[in-house]
Amino acid sequence: MGGRQGTLDQQRWLELWSRLGAQGIGASVFAQLSAAYGESGRAYHTAEHIRDCLAELDLTRDLAQYPDEVEAALWFHDAVYRPGASDNEDQSAKLARTALSMGAVPRAVTDRTAALVLATEHAGAPSLPDEQLICDIDLSILGREPRIFDTFEEQIRREYAWVPEPVYRRERSAVLSRFLRRRSIYQTDQFRHRYEALARGNLVRLIEKLGAPR
Fold first, then answer.
1. How far apart are alpha carbons 203 and 143 in whole angstroms?
2. Dist CA 5 CA 46 (whole Å)
3. What is the mean pLDDT of the segment spanning 122-132?
């Protein structure tokens, strides 16, 4: 979901850090991530969003080829977030690569994690299984019940509070319409079954609202 409530789970992070083969600095990286997700100006891309993504992963972990890399990428995927910036995922992937390299994580693990962070840019429908899973997890908010989805949209609007209303409506509608034009919003059977119909209904309703005269 989202919202500024909630904190990251340090014990869970440190256990993952160990499974990744990392050495030292795990607590320092956790502190860096906690500070990032607690930045002022964030309303949706917060610790609560990460906790929600991890809960979705817990339900579908068996779908992952490299579940620890998927989990690590979820921790990092919105660590750098500047509303309107075009390189958030790239910068988040670089942060992941730096942190994991400093922790002496094997290069292959680091590379896979960084690539998964980049996949959350949602530039197109992913083809690799772990990319499909992480993208479905990140987009699961679109298929929640309308009350939760509406709260998500309110939080996104707060993050873009500096954007004039007509511009926001136009640009937001364009972004969401791209998902509707996909043959399927979700790439895995499990997420399609759970969220596809609701997601399409939510998006149609919101796009109509964004396009309606005030």
1. 9
2. 8
3. 92
Name the DSSP letter for residue 146: H
Greatest C-alpha distance within the chain: 56
H or E element, residue 10 = helix 10-19
Q: Extract the tokens encoding 167.
A: 């511009």
Tell me the DSSP string of 24-79.
S-HHHHHHHHHHHHT-TT-SSSSHHHHHHHHHHHHHHGGG-SSHHHHHHHHHHTTS
Tokens 């500096």 label which residue? 162
Location of structure tokens 């499990």: 190
Name the CA dihedral angle for 97, 69, 128, 74, rounded to a multiple of 10 degrees.
-80
Tokens of 120: 């959350």
Q: Where are the domains of the chain?
A: 10-125, 141-211
Query: What amino acid occupies position 37?
Result: Y
Is the pTM higher than 0.70? The answer reads: yes
The structure tokens listed for 129 are: 């299984």
**What percent of the chain clears pLDDT 90, i.e. is strictly above it?**
92
